[in-house]
Specification:
Blueprint (H helix, E strand, L loop, with lengths): L11 E7 L5 E6 L4 E7 L2 E4 L8 E6 L5 E5 L5 E5 L2 E4 L9 E6 L5 E9 L2 E9 L4
Antiparallel strand pairs: 1-2, 2-3, 3-4, 5-6, 6-7, 7-8, 9-10, 10-11
Length: 130
């Protein structure tokens, strides 16, 4: 077993996704502040470093793209090539809680639905970046 540790100044961490290259994502946190991380080749880095964003990374594909959400705003996020991209409206509706990403870049999550006598959520897929 390998202890991944935490980001500097944090107290605990939680891993939630791993790809075939051994890259791991999750969140590192102090008391309430969550920081999305990528752990690779023995080092943990903050995926949102410098942005002030608090959140978590949930899943990662084999290209190194990760998805998660911002805990402060509830927005769905894509971590792509050292950028944090808000994908909340990438599907043409409010894309909530990005949960997975495959190698072609398709992201799964949920969208709210409503109508006469209906209010709830549906599973959804979108491809915000190729």
């Amino acid at each position: 077993m390998t202890d991944l540790g935490t980001l500097p100044g944090d107290l605990s961490s939680f891993a939630s996704g791993i790809n075939e290259r051994g890259q791991i994502v999750g969140d590192s946190h102090a008391v309430v502040d969550e920081h999305p991380f990528l752990f690779y080749k023995g080092a943990m880095v903050n995926l949102a470093d410098g942005s002030g964003l608090l959140g978590t990374a949930i899943a990662i594909n084999n290209r190194g793209d990760a998805v998660g959400f911002a805990t402060t705003s509830g927005h769905s996020l894509l971590f792509h090539k050292n950028q944090v991209i808000d994908i909340t409206n990438a599907s043409g509706t409010t894309f909530l809680s990005a949960q997975g990403i495959n190698d072609p870049g398709q992201i799964i999550g949920i969208v709210p639905v409503s109508g006469p006598g209906l209010m709830g959520y549906h599973a959804a897929v979108c491809t915000p970046v190729k």
